[in-house]
Amino acid sequence: MTDNKLLIKTSNPTSESQINKRGGKRKGSGRKTKYGSQTIVMRVPIDLSSDIQNFINNGNKMKLPLYASKVSAGFPSPADDYIATRLDLNNHIIKNPSATFFVRAVGSSMIKAGIFDGDLLVVDRSLNVTEGRVVIAAIDGELTVKRYCVKDNKPFLMPENDKYPPITINEEQGVYIWGVVTNVIHPL
Fold first, then answer.
1. What average pLDDT does the structure give for the chain?
2. 139-158: per-residue pLDDT in tens?
3. What pLDDT, in 10s, does the model give residues 103-121?
4. 109, 135 contact by CB (below 8 A)
């Protein structure tokens, strides 16, 4: 027996053309999964299966302790150690997960609005853009964060720093509003 015959007898079809010649799995065939993409089978300990299923169903939600006592920004007051509930930041920061994204701010054009260089912005695309809202806009393909304003029925983007000029929005310009900034996350 030659090496070629041995190879043919013992090999499994691996390329798509070999599979199509011999039958078997076809691209796009079979039952579709609820996840919309291919799946794999994994063996997990039974006692972890409910934790894994919860993670898949709920995403990466982390509930943190919320203490019942208030924090004084003036004179200190004694605090108690009573945890009133657990706080899920997803419920407070992300109202519409499928329409929410994060973007990092760069520059100093929005410092009077409390947005500083390096801050993480939470942006919701499902919210209506109304006057006075801070928005993420794409101008000629570049993203910027500014306050959406209207004067004499003409919209413009207003920086929150006197060193920067307002940006007029006109039809010839390629300006698209990506979403409304709902929260700013920055370190102290």
1. 77
2. 887 899 999 999 998 999 99
3. 999 999 999 999 999 999 9
4. no
- The three-state (H, E, C) secondary structure of the chain, written as one string: CCHHHHHHHHCCCCCHHHHHHHCCCCCCCCCCCCCCCCCCCCCCCHHHHHHHHHHHHHCCCCEEEEECCCCCCCCCCCCCCCEEEEEEHHHHHCCCHHHEEEEECCCCCCHHHCCCCCCEEEEECCCCCCCCCEEEEEECCEEEEEEEEEECCEEEEECCCCCCCCEECCCCCCEEEEEEEEEEECCC
Give the separation between CA 116 and CA 166, rounded to whole angstroms: 18
pLDDT at 9 (0 to 100): 37
CA nearest to 117, candidates 161, 157, 176, 166: 161
Output the pTM of the full model: 0.60
Which comes out higher in pLDDT, residue 176 or 37?
Answer: 176
Q: What pLDDT does 139 receive?
A: 85
Catalytically annotated residues:
109, 146
Please, what sign has the CA dihedral across residues 125, 126, 129, 132?
A: negative
Q: Name all domains of the chain by residue range, CATH numbers in brackets.
A: 15-58 (no CATH), 63-93 (no CATH), 97-185 (2.10.109.10)
